[in-house]
């Protein structure tokens, strides 16, 4: 753990009866970066975030936030904001009362930012929270998460019900505000391509295990899809790791995990092969599936 480590976990494990929700999680998250926590339904994202925010505790292992275990540790908890998909507010609270309560709790609260976001989202602040639409409720969480300016902010799929325009407002404002006020953001999302440009680092969890923990920049261009005559595709890819394989008659399209240099690209061209980039979403989906297949003894090639 270094000075700039915001979150460190070692052998973090959590089991619910017969479900191993987290299995030996070892992570180091640096301060002042935007992390994507990605994974399928039930992968363990919420469990991990709830332990990191002191709302749950592990069976085994440690989770340190700025060097402290967060569970019932108020000085640490006051540095964290956790916005969940199913965020609960006190019964009968109006929107502006939720903001007032948040302003009292978070010492870096920025009221002007909150007001600007209220305008951006067109949120009726005098309405009772229980009367809000699903998207408006998400907007309340997004505003609290951003205006809190907490040193670590967790957004657990905060966009439920937000339309495409509102989601884009969220992403744009987050990037703008982060540039002026760097902090650690952990964003869990299923909409990987939508958030891809925001993320500096990507953590993918599958069945409670970390399957990818890498800088987003390294993942862009970490795979390529080669399409063309099946025999030539096979000759070109050689022993590269195959993430996905599709075939139609004599044609095949194979996604391989590799960075191609100019020479290899030229070679593909001379062989009449097409090269297409792989989006972060495709890469994550393919890699997670191939990791799962490896772990269960299946052959990736058999999964086309
Ligand atoms: N309180 C609980 N009791 C029993 N099982 C639980 C409990 N909370 C979570 N689980 C199980 O632990 C696993 C991980 O759940 P978790 O909510 O962390 O996943 P997730 O990645 O956040 O999923 P989603 O994307 O669907 O929200 C799942 O199999 C889930 O059913």
From TrEMBL:
The keyword Nucleotide-binding applies. The keyword DNA-binding does not apply. Pfam families: ABC_tran (PF00005). Residues 7-232 form the ABC transporter domain. It comes from the Bacteria. PANTHER family: ABC TRANSPORTER, ATP-BINDING PROTEIN, SKFA PEPTIDE EXPORT ATP-BINDING PROTEIN SKFE. This is ABC transporter ATP-binding protein.
């Amino acid at each position: 753990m270094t000075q700039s480590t915001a979150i460190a976990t070692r052998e973090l494990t959590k089991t619910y009866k017969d479900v191993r929700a987290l299995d030996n999680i070892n992570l180091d998250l640096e301060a002042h970066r935007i992390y994507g926590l990605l994974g399928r339904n039930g992968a363990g994202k919420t469990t991990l975030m709830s332990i990191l925010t002191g709302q749950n505790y592990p069976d085994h292992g440690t989770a340190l936030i700025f060097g402290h275990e967060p569970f019932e540790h108020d000085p640490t908890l006051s540095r964290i904001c956790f916005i969940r998909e199913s965020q609960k507010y006190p019964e009968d609270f109006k929107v502006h009362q939720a903001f007032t309560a948040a302003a009292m709790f978070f010492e870096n609260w920025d009221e002007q930012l909150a007001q600007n976001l209220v305008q951006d989202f067109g949120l009726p602040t005098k309405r009772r929270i229980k009367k809000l639409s699903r998207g408006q409720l998400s907007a309340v969480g997004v505003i609290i998460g951003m205006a809190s300016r907490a040193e670590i902010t967790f957004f657990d799929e905060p966009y439920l019900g937000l339309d495409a325009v509102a989601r884009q407002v969220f992403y744009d404002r987050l990037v703008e505000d982060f540039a002026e006020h760097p902090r650690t953001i952990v964003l869990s999302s299923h909409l990987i391509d939508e958030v891809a440009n925001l993320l500096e680092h990507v953590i993918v969890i599958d069945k409670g295990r970390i399957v990818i923990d890498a800088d987003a920049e390294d993942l862009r261009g970490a795979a390529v899809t080669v399409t063309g005559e099946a025999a030539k595709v096979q000759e070109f890819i050689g022993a590269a790791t195959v993430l996905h394989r599709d075939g139609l008659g004599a044609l095949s399209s194979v996604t391989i995990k590799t960075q191609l240099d100019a020479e290899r690209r030229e070679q593909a061209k001379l062989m009449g092969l097409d090269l297409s980039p792989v989006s972060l979403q495709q890469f994550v989906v393919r890699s997670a599936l191939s990791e799962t297949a490896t772990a269960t003894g299946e052959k990736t090639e058999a999964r086309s």
